[in-house]
């Protein structure tokens, strides 16, 4: 996914048009489950929807609270409910801190 973009993860085809094609038959994934934002500086953030996902969202076995976000890194394992998971790949190195 290109920098500066967002993808919605869920089964609702009007809310998550890209992901719903792959998740439509996954009953443990909510219609509106989570979002991934790839910022212009190369960071990627996963956020569970504020109203919560019925079966929850985990990153590396850490449960996300509704509306909370976590920064993703290469190799992280994301779980959307108990039956759907994926490994994060292709995130660039973390941006260097600006010199004072």
TrEMBL record:
CDD domains: FHA (cd00060). Keywords: Phosphoprotein. Gene3D superfamilies: 2.60.200.20. This is FHA domain-containing protein. PROSITE patterns: FHA_DOMAIN. The keyword Phosphoprotein applies. It comes from Streptomyces diastatochromogenes. The lineage of its organism: Bacteria, Bacillati, Actinomycetota, Actinomycetes, Kitasatosporales. Residues 7-64 form the FHA domain.
């Amino acid at each position: 996914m290109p920098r500066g973009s967002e993808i919605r993860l869920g089964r609702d085809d009007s809310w998550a048009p890209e992901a719903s094609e792959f998740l439509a038959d996954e009953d443990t994934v909510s219609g509106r489950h989570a979002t991934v934002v790839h910022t212009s500086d190369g960071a990627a953030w996963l956020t569970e929807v504020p109203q919560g996902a019925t079966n929850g969202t985990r990153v590396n076995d850490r449960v996300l609270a509704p509306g909370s976000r976590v920064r993703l890194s290469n190799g992280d394992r994301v779980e959307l409910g108990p039956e759907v998971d994926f490994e994060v790949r292709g995130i660039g190195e973390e941006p260097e801190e600006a010199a004072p």
